[in-house]
Amino acid sequence: MAAAAAEQQQQGFRPLDEASLVAYIKATPALAARLGGRLDALTIKEVGDGNLNFVYIVLSDAGSLVIKQRAYFEASALQKHRGLCPDHVPEVYHFDRAMSLIGMRYIEPPHIILRKGLIAGVEYPLLAEHMADYMAKTLFFTSLLYNSTTDHKKGVAQYCDNVEMCRLTEQVVFSDPYMLAKYNRCTSPFLDNDAAAVREDAELKLEIAELKSMFIERAQALLHGDLHTGSIMVTPDSTQVIDPEFAFYGPMGYDIGAFLGNLILAYFSQDGHADQANDRKAYKKWILKTIEDSWNFLSNYGINTKMGMGKHTCPLYTTAFVELWNKHKDGNGEAYLPPIYNSSELLRLAQKKYMTSLFHDSLGFGSAKMIRRIVGIAHVEDFESIEDASKRASCERRALNCAKAILKGRRQFESIGQVIVHVQSFDRD
Amino acid sequence: MAAAAAEQQQQGFRPLDEASLVAYIKATPALAARLGGRLDALTIKEVGDGNLNFVYIVLSDAGSLVIKQRAYFEASALQKHRGLCPDHVPEVYHFDRAMSLIGMRYIEPPHIILRKGLIAGVEYPLLAEHMADYMAKTLFFTSLLYNSTTDHKKGVAQYCDNVEMCRLTEQVVFSDPYMLAKYNRCTSPFLDNDAAAVREDAELKLEIAELKSMFIERAQALLHGDLHTGSIMVTPDSTQVIDPEFAFYGPMGYDIGAFLGNLILAYFSQDGHADQANDRKAYKKWILKTIEDSWNFLSNYGINTKMGMGKHTCPLYTTAFVELWNKHKDGNGEAYLPPIYNSSELLRLAQKKYMTSLFHDSLGFGSAKMIRRIVGIAHVEDFESIEDASKRASCERRALNCAKAILKGRRQFESIGQVIVHVQSFDRD
């Protein structure tokens, strides 16, 4: 971790422990105020992964916050995305560059990690529109659809330094699953042949090469960089996106695909969580509906047919990606200058082409994220929590085969509805 | 020019005039030595454009060099590309960051600008293989086929600062020709309707948007950035690429397309230069052959069928793009890891896919470069030197129609031979 080491050597950096953390908070009015000044009986919980991040939840009688260290790009992306989408990004109270320290909102209970909610079978009726809102705003406003080339390249240069995190992603998403790699694992012995088949699939390898190059080369927008269902905290009313430590300028489809792909994983895991009390059939339908709505709300297609179907669909009308584009088409955005795209029909055609390309990118990256969670190093709790290995393998195999087919055939899909039909067609042995 | 202004304000910068230039050379051993120490009777010619660059040719009895000021990215790219391809990039003798000054080789007569040679009807039998060599090496060795992500992103971040030059390109290549812009011009009144048709061509505008986004977003390799036939100095034996002041990390096809597109412009201009002494028919065939060979030598396809056809085709065998790829496939390149692309058949498929995509990018960018030279601000001497405006317009119209068709249909071409046939089909009224 050369970057982290360099950061440590910055003047003024010292890793905090609980005692020095309290002293730091006392000396920092922006943080002390969030705890209501009640600093003598703080409860401090260390919740970091013991590796890259020091993470503390700090509670007083009168308030709460989270402190993270070693998190420059996370802080930077949080602040940027929070400015663009305050409803779904937690507030940063304080950032200390020299200490690589952020003090931020503690996302309090009853918020839970979305992935856990999906495993428990909880419906989140606002999830699709909240996430569409988040993705539309963070991606659109950090792209050349909204920014001048000068501003865009400034951002690109800044986040080039987060290269260690990008390298990690490259390895675990785009490389290891397609080769014999030390830390790859799968539900053995059931999926051994399936994992071997991935390593021998020439067509899949040609597709993943294209996505890998796009991931590294294409600075389309400032991404969250790790937008799976473990990076989202939810209640039925609230959706908060956290942990953008992998933030970088990359292809938009990587964020969108991460979210949709992890929902598809959740879908295929449901049979493993079904029991006599709940066969999960209705819940599976809700997941598919959420996948479909997320893309449709984001892309703003099909809004007309959905208007009035429910109280939650209308607000999207003004925040979806294409709506933002229309609203800001006369701004500083470099990509589509009004004197060139000078009729509403031409602009509509350009938008359709752009969104189709984004759709196919999202499907590609989404399926790559699915594959790596089944045959790569890091698995997901959706499947891991299925105790019966044979049953787990069966769920995983369906997801894997579905993902392989999407990755190879993604350019044939014309709508998210077709993808949903495709997903369902793999939902059997 | 905010970047240039900032550069001027750097400590130590002062613009040189002839007197202070001589003093600078006397105080700089690396430069004085190149003039054989004969500094008392220097001949100095100011050959800059009076705008961005101060350029001086300095001659003594015993040597020569060129001094340029305001050229940080040019110096940086020259040094990088010279290291990769010393045969076709002039040597940098001295670089002074604070003064934004480079001292470099004076490309001596009988070298002339290639564009002038093409207008005069001079054949350069080594041009195709020299340029294929230059493009293969500079592009391959600055891409993820050869470099780690870490090194690649360092380079990307560095050249993000050359944004002013990128913005200029965006405007004159990808924007102005497709809208009413103040400085657009064409051979009026003959081409007025043709220029208007470009501004009303929805299909063309959708394609140019895709290329423009790729130009800004896709950091595939360190490009020359302005590789037209005016940036190349030639003799029958020597090919030297100069003036990379637009250098940045962009799509490889932009450099390749610039070169090929300008050769196609030269082709269509020939009828305007024909006279009773020389109908230029043989020369036109040579240009087409040079276009075809340049791509084939670069991509290394068809080498087998060409082997032994002439003394100049063999050396290419070891320097073309795919040969470099094969030679360095076990190096640090991040894009195609050997444990994944683990059979020669699979690697060949990956290379074919990569080169096909590069071919289509090159055709797209090449045709965009042609269009802008006919209906945009900056025209080419190939056409401008045709005095009869009606004849000039006729040549330009063929080139324009050819370029429009390539831009729209580029993905249908499977070989450069098909492109040549296509070009010839437009060579009539």
UniProtKB/TrEMBL annotation, chains A, B:
<keyword id="KW-0547">Nucleotide-binding</keyword>
<dbReference type="InterPro" id="IPR002575">
    <property type="entry name" value="Aminoglycoside_PTrfase"/>
</dbReference>
<comment type="subunit">
    <text>Homodimer.</text>
</comment>
<dbReference type="GO" id="GO:0009086">
    <property type="term" value="P:methionine biosynthetic process"/>
</dbReference>
<protein>
    <recommendedName>
        <fullName>S-methyl-5-thioribose kinase</fullName>
        <ecNumber>2.7.1.100</ecNumber>
    </recommendedName>
</protein>
<dbReference type="GO" id="GO:0046522">
    <property type="term" value="F:S-methyl-5-thioribose kinase activity"/>
</dbReference>
<keyword id="KW-0067">ATP-binding</keyword>
<dbReference type="InterPro" id="IPR009212">
    <property type="entry name" value="Methylthioribose_kinase"/>
</dbReference>
<feature type="domain" description="Aminoglycoside phosphotransferase">
    <location>
        <begin position="45"/>
        <end position="276"/>
    </location>
</feature>
<dbReference type="GO" id="GO:0005524">
    <property type="term" value="F:ATP binding"/>
</dbReference>
<dbReference type="InterPro" id="IPR011009">
    <property type="entry name" value="Kinase-like_dom_sf"/>
</dbReference>
<keyword id="KW-0418">Kinase</keyword>
<dbReference type="Pfam" id="PF01636">
    <property type="entry name" value="APH"/>
</dbReference>
<comment type="similarity">
    <text>Belongs to the methylthioribose kinase family.</text>
</comment>
<keyword id="KW-0808">Transferase</keyword>
